Amino acid sequence: MRTRRASSFAAVALAALAAMPGRSVAAGQPAALESPVFTESAAAMGVRFRHVAGRTPEKNMIETMGSGVCFLDYDGDGDADLFFVQSGPVPGASGTRTGHVLYRNDGKGRFTDVSAAAGVAGTGYGMGCAAADFDNDGDQDLYVTQFGPNLLYRNNGNGTFSEGGGKAGVAYPLWSTSAAFADYDADGRLDLFVANYVDFAMNNNKWCGDSIRKIRAYCHPDAYEGVPDVLYHNNGDGTFTDVTKKAGLTERWGKGLGAVFSDLDDDGDLDLYVAKDSVPNALYRNNGNGTFTDVTLDSGTGYSEDGKPEAGMGTDAGDYDGDGRFDLFVVHLSGEVNELYRNLGGLRFEVATYPAGIAEVGVLWVGFGTNFFDYDNDGDLDLYVANGHIVDNIPLFNDALSYAQRDFLLENTGTGRFKDVGRKHGAYFSKAFVGRGMALADIDADGDLDVVVSNNDQAAVLLRNDGGNAKHYLRLRLRGTRSNRDGIGAKVIVTAAGRKQVEELRSGTSYLSQNELVLHFGLGAAGRADQVEIRWPSGTRQLLRDVAADRTISIEESSAR
Amino acid sequence: MSPRSCTVILLLGMLAGSCEGCRQGSTPAHPPRADANPAGGWDPASVPLPADAARWVDQGVAEYRQGKYLEAAASFKQARDLVPADPRVSTFLGTALLHAKRYTPAQEEFHRILTLHPEAIDPRLGLARIYIRLGDYPSAIPLFQEVLSKDPNNAQALYNLGLLRYRTADYAGARELLERLLTLKADLPEAHYTLALTCARQGDDATAEKELQRAVALAPENSQAHFQLASLYVRKGRKEEAEREQKIFERLWDRQASDRAAEGRARELLRKEDYAGALKEYNRLLEINPQSGRFQLWKGLCFLKLGRKEEALPALERAVALDPRLPDAQFQLAILYQERGEARKSEEARRAFEALEAIGENKTGF
């Protein structure tokens, strides 16, 4: 497999070089491509999803949000299927709603639209999604957040879904954004966190913009009150109970956009971080007894280095510096910086944005979808940021900004710093889109991570990673027995060639989106992993030794602790 | 002397430095002093502007101070066309364009005047500010270095270059510049604050704490310094002190947030130039939060817009009594006192304004 991809990469690279004979690379021009190359492949792979924002002259705030995208294995065949959330037209507007779209993957990265058969087209103005086997029946279910009642699609196990959000008690009626499944109380069942945004409604749309020049623009979230987030406890009978207050999630600002469950203090339970728009982010420490404590201020993750709340959009956790602790990354509005919070242990973080060299990169961009990932399998975590401004007429207010923006591929240099290298890895990174949701999966099962981006009011982009598998990798699919069946929340530590890497299986993350539920480790030059340690949410620890690389292995939770 | 002329002279005559740091201030930013540095070869007192150009500058300044940056730029451009080689006018034009977020023409104007006056300082600083806003630190840094080679004590350049050194992880370089600045101007809370961040990055928490305490002493309402102090105490395990600082930070932040939220209607009326309506709204807000210097400031500004100077004066005096770190209030008071022949008070307000504007009121750079 690696040989095939390496060859195909060589052909792509040679073709790219041949297209630019004798040209020197000047500033602003695409650089000569380096391995790996990301090739825009949506149409070629059968993905024709186009997001509809339903933009109107009234500039309803919901039109700016775009939508999420989730990888899931809905048919249990081991490959990454793809679900896009659809939005427009806005409520009350004319126009045909095309509905959410589910694509089945044939295992080779060819996708077929199965939405109608699956029964997931839905109703309402969609926002985000999360996928997990919440009822532990062996197939992955889908939760869809909306501007309006959220939807819970229970997988019937036969290629179809049944919507039952109301019956299950999770049809939150206002404006929800990101969602994430996690077993916060370690009872073996996946609970559900839903981030909610503001109290905008179609009948309270405010006029924002430049009243002197009579230029209307989309409102800043300051124009509306926040709506608090919700935590639902899984009752184990197909229903959930709102335990937000009981669990201590009493943060008062609302305006949540991104969420990630992660064991940030390495104590075996899942803490919760919520990125919030123009109000302080929230970090909740899991107390291990079904409750959380707000540790935002002590942790240093709620604000910029200067103690200012920023416009947090998407977020992710990952151990970028290889110290075994999950760090946090939050992307923001132009004029702010994308913050990297380095985990110092004990739920204390330092702002590493400037030392990591990523501050100035983001000043003119608006980040939404984001993920840590090892795109080149070299053994450290790089970053992807999907960019696109919120205000569609932003050049009227600032001539340095554009609505459509190019995405970032930030390479981890291995020294605690990142470098924007996208344009060296594909023509796509020189093109501008209005990026929103973003997720990762190895869609063509070739050993490297591919990227999907849902763009606001534009066609989705699927970036096939060609050549990312030039180095070794190991992929792990987990199956819980005492833990939740998907193994969500499991922490895996891989040791290869003397280097330790840690990852965690998560639902949610990024912005409105979810990655495939498979853990991917780049191993660099190491053809084997010396050790793979799995720490399951149940507390079970499992060790595998001398594991051959370049394959996906399935691991079932052992019965012995 | 007309109030308008008085304003222009005040602006030209004072060291109204400008730094990247005015984003949070919702009051209009200040045009920098036109180049009065001897190294730039200009002395505004000895080279007065022609009357027609001065009128346009006068109008531009008035528009600028209302936050009408595009209109101000148009007026400054009229003046610039009359005196195309005058770096003072070009600096006004470039600065207005910068605040209007018209970075391309702003850069063009600064570059143009720098080709005519390669030694000029203020256009160079203006250009550097644009590069900071665009996240182009490698272009901004040499400009500040050039300013310092011509004017080693330039506060703006010392501060901003120190800030950029900090941001690019050159902590030793940042510390040297900021310490130098503080030997020249010991009362700059921003410099103490940024020096504290730098020291903390160097692992020198003792100096960081001392500098933060100095910043807090100079600017008790500055939430950033309290935030940093709280972080430092958490880091050092000094729980009680951390909690105390966290409470102060949260109180300040809450107040700022609630003021911002409450102020929306008043701001909208100001945008519509309904000053009577805005005045009414600020009076209402002051009933809710009588300790807000910011609301008092805007009340005073509304009085000024309505031509009610006698009522503006006590409102502005009350504003600076509540919050001495309101540069707009100090600026307007300097003019009002000057008009009333109260030279000593005018001079005090002018000095207060100078101190506040020497580098700006925060360090974020946007």
Descriptive account of the structure:
- Chain A has 561 residues and is mostly beta strands.
- Chain A contains four helices and 37 strands.
- In chain A, the strands form ten sheets. Chain A has a four-stranded antiparallel beta sheet with strand order 1-30-29-28. A four-stranded antiparallel beta sheet of chain A has the order 2-3-4-5.
- By secondary structure, chain B is an all-alpha fold.
- Helix content of chain B is 72%, strand content 0%.
- In chain B, helix 11 runs antiparallel to helix 12, helix 14 packs antiparallel against helix 15 and helix 18 runs antiparallel to helix 19.
- The chains are: A mainly beta (561), B mainly alpha (366).
- Chains A and B meet through loops of A and helix 12, helix 13 and helix 14 of B.
- Rg calculated over all Cα atoms of chain A: 22 Å
**Count of alpha/pi helices of chain B:** 19
Spatial shape of chain B: globular
Secondary-structure content class of chain A: mainly beta
The level of helicity of chain B is over 70%
Hey, which two chains have the biggest interface? A-B, 32 and 44 residues
Residue windows where pLDDT falls under 50 for at least 5 positions of chain A: 1-28
Proportion of residues in β-strands of chain B: under 5%
Written as H for each helix and E for each strand, in order along the chain, the element string of chain B is HHHHHHHHHHHHHHHHHHH
How much of the sequence lies in strands of chain A comes to 35-45%
Residue windows where pLDDT falls under 50 for at least 5 positions of chain B = 1-45, 359-366
